[in-house]
Specification:
The chain is of the alpha/beta class. It has 14 helices and 19 strands. The strands form five sheets. A six-stranded mixed beta sheet has the order 12-11-13-17-18-19, sandwiched between helices. Helix 9 runs parallel beside helix 13 and helix 13 packs across helix 14. It is elongated and about 90 Å long. The protein starts with a strand and ends in a 16-residue tail after the last strand.
Length: about 500
């Protein structure tokens, strides 16, 4: 029977450069034997010392693997095509056997080339992953082992560093270091492909490992990286986990509303970015159901330590029932006041949880005093939120006076968030370095004397005043404070947190 054997590109150099060879044979095994009888070097790539096909060589007869038929004894017909598809051919070197390789071994078992004894070996999983490299003469087993032993430092994880880091990791570089002082910006995601929307506002050094490891294939990617080294070139000091925690919730897509809210998602992402710059460990949740919000609050609870500064932000629809204020999840079904208690989450209950967990300071920002589609379903209803009693050492900022509502703005952010972001960016002590004192002394331009960032209460009150002025008194936020110590938002170079 006349059959055609298709030779893969990587093996053509061992078959006289031919892309296909015609032979007369009765079985697939006989056809391969006839092929390799005249090409001894090719035989070393396809067969082991026992003249059996290597376990990394796949042979297809008319697109069907012969292992699923009769193996080498699979009969062939006139005009059939045999395709050789090696998972690994070893490139410039040939593996004696890929079974039983120990990833921690230091000696190679390669035929034809003695590799450096200090090179790490590939696991079976890595052999399969890098098989396309291994059949390339320019790489081969030796080249792949050198990649695994390599260490590369990427300066920057932006438009160039992101794809570079991904390619280096995918290629099998064993140790990858990243230096970056910036945070992820929403407007850069179209080119900084290692980051995702969920990473907006996060430090790139925190986001990059997630993009590299890829949660969906964590096991596989972990095999690529023996060590991940992250060097920080940042003026922002690091803080122990749990020092500053924040839960940011932005709800926009309410089925009972005529249209999705425009601002809460943008507000949540922008505030997340600002808080992460200020050293907060932030979890952000968007369009959250009751279960989503409850789980997020539970995770926050588990992380609170006695010395923690904890912030909660909620943007969306809020409602008051029985002089208590509630955050409404996107899946809430509300027709009666009892539905609110069952389907929404009390703000006061979250503050109480923070207190019970021993949080040192509690900060709450509520941009939820909107006209919502639920209130008029009640026999007696009240606009806006109820007064929120600040727990011990707590500070609460709401977008409107209790019992009042605020209209959404036409901008990217709500009026409250726009002013809050401005004040978070522009924090200064009442007397920054370089300001002349009132006694007629000279201007102090002392280098190295960093100004202290403003306290949270100052920032919230400045935001309140700015909103009232910009709205000409139509919207007056409320600030409620029981703080007994100053909680600074934003950090100078010399701040200790």
């Amino acid at each position: 029977m006349s059959v055609t054997i298709a030779i893969p590109t990587a093996l053509r150099q061992f078959a006289g450069g031919q892309s296909e060879v015609k032979v007369e044979a009765a079985t697939a095994g006989e056809a391969l034997n006839l092929l390799t009888a005249s090409h001894a070097e090719l035989r070393r790539h396809l067969f082991n010392d026992q003249n059996a096909l290597r376990n990394f060589v796949n042979v297809y007869l008319n697109d069907e693997d012969i292992r699923h038929q009769n193996g080498s004894d699979t009969p062939v017909k006139d005009g059939d095509t045999i395709l050789i598809v090696p998972s690994i051919a070893g490139g410039s070197t040939v593996m004696d056997d890929v079974t039983g390789i120990d990833a921690g071994a230091s000696k190679s078992r390669l035929v034809g080339t003695a590799l450096q004894s200090d090179l790490p070996m590939l696991s079976n999983e890595e052999v399969a992953r890098y098989s396309r490299h291994l059949i390339m003469p320019e790489v081969g087993m030796e080249g792949q082992l050198k990649l695994k032993a390599a260490k590369v430092l990427c300066i920057g994880a932006g438009g160039l560093g992101s794809p570079l880091a991904l390619y280096l990791g995918a290629a099998g570089v064993g140790t990858l270091g990243i230096v970056d002082f910036d945070v992820v910006d929403f407007t850069n995601l179209q080119r900084q492909i290692i980051h995702s929307t969920a990473d907006v506002g996060r430090r790139k050094l925190e986001s990059a490992p997630v993009g590299l490891l890829d949660r969906r294939s964590m096991k596989t990617r972990l095999a690529l990286f023996l060590t991940l080294i992250f060097a920080v070139a940042s003026i922002v000091p690091s803080f122990a986990a749990g020092d500053r925690l924040a839960l940011v919730i932005g709800n926009a897509k309410y089925p009972d509303a005529e249209a999705p809210l425009k601002e809460p998602i943008n507000d949540a992402r922008a505030l997340t970015m600002a808080l992460r710059r200020d050293g907060f460990d932030v979890e952000v949740v968007e369009d959250a159901s009751k279960d989503d919000m409850s789980r997020a609050i539970g995770r926050l609870k588990s992380r609170i330590k006695p010395d923690s500064v904890v912030m909660l932000f909620f943007g969306g629809y809020g409602i008051q029932v029985g002089r208590e204020s509630y955050m409404i999840p996107v899946d809430a079904t509300i027709w009666r006041e009892s539905d609110v208690r069952r389907g929404a989450i009390s703000i006061e209950s979250v503050l109480e949880m923070m207190k019970e967990q021993g949080a040192r300071a509690k900060l709450v920002v509520l941009d939820a005093s909107r006209r919502n589609p639920y209130e008029r379903r009640f026999r007696a209803f009240s606009h806006g939120l109820a007064p929120i009693n600040a727990a011990d050492n707590a500070l609460v900022l709401t977008s409107a006076t209790p019992g009042k509502v605020a209209d959404d703005s036409a901008g990217q952010y709500s009026v409250l968030m726009a002013e809050l972001l401005t004040n978070l960016r522009d924090q200064q002590a009442d007397k920054p370095a370089g300001e002349a004192d009132n006694s007629g002394g000279q201007v102090d331009n002392s280098a190295g004397e960093a100004t202290k960032p403003a306290g949270a209460e100052t920032v919230f009150n400045k935001t309140r005043v700015a909103v009232a002025k910009s709205s000409e008194g139509e919207q007056v936020p409320s600030v409620s404070s029981s703080l007994v110590e100053e909680v600074r938002l934003g950090m100078s170079e010399n701040s200790g947190g």
